[in-house]
Amino acid sequence: MKNLKTTLAIPLLMLLSCMIFAGCNYSKGAKKDFRTGLSFSYNGFIVRDVLLIDPANKRMTDNKVQLNTQIAIVALGLNNYGLKDGKVFPGMMLLVTDKKGTTVLNAADLFAGAQGYPPASATELRGDITIARPMAAGETYHVKVHIWDKVKADNELNIEADLVIQ
């Protein structure tokens, strides 16, 4: 009888542990696209993918961009926000620096002052970057994007990439 209790207790404890962890909706990870060099790490959020998007709105296959164009960094499948009055409140910082660390573009929060969004409309966040002066052809620029949840403080997504201007 003791063996039967032990045999049943172990799977039951494993099942209970899985249910507890699944109920937490906690996610953490990192990924790197070796073709473009874009890397991202996330904590708390659920993230399907992060992409570099070219001027034709297609996924980039390298990190080379033309001067006087616009590209974007897009986070896809972003979920597990905290809710406040049924809405989500993302924050998104976008920083571009040259090889000396001099700031070329600094947007502290692209969603500053927003009154919140329905959760379904915040699953894809996009930060557009105009490739223009003071950027120069032949130079490399470092891009950092930080996305956070203004309700659930532990949720964050950090993205980095180098762009080679042609």
Descriptive keywords:
single chain, 166 residues, 10 strands
Secondary structure layout:
Layout: H1 2-24, E1 28-32, E2 39-43, E3 49-53, E4 64-65, E5 69-76, E6 90-97, E7 103-107, E8 125-131, E9 140-149, E10 156-165
Parallel strand pairs: 4-10
Antiparallel strand pairs: 1-2, 2-10, 3-5, 5-8, 6-7, 6-9, 9-10
Structure report:
The chain is mainly beta and 166 residues long. The chain is 14% helix and 39% strand. It is built from 1 helix and 10 strands, in the order αββββββββββ. It has one helix at residues 2-24; strands at residues 28-32, 39-43, 49-53, 64-65, 69-76, 90-97, 103-107, 125-131, 140-149, 156-165. Strands 1, 2, 4, 6, 7, 9 and 10 form a 7-stranded mixed beta sheet that branches. A 3-stranded antiparallel beta sheet has the order 3-5-8, with no helix packed on it. A hairpin with a 5-residue loop joins strand 6 and strand 7 (103-107). The chain is globular and about 50 Å long. Residues 15-23 have low confidence and may be disordered.
Structure described in brief:
This protein has one helix and ten strands; from the N terminus they run αββββββββββ.
Which structural category do the helix and sheet elements fall into?
mainly beta
The coarse overall form would be globular
Strand content: 35-45%
Helix content: 10-25%
Mean pLDDT: 89
Largest sheet: 7 strands, mixed
Spatial gap, N to C terminus = 75 Å
Order of helices and strands: HEEEEEEEEEE
* Unreliable segments of 5+ consecutive residues: 15-23
Total helical elements: 1
Number of strands: 10
Task: Output the radius of gyration.
Answer: 20 Å
Tell me which oligomeric state these chains represent.
single chain
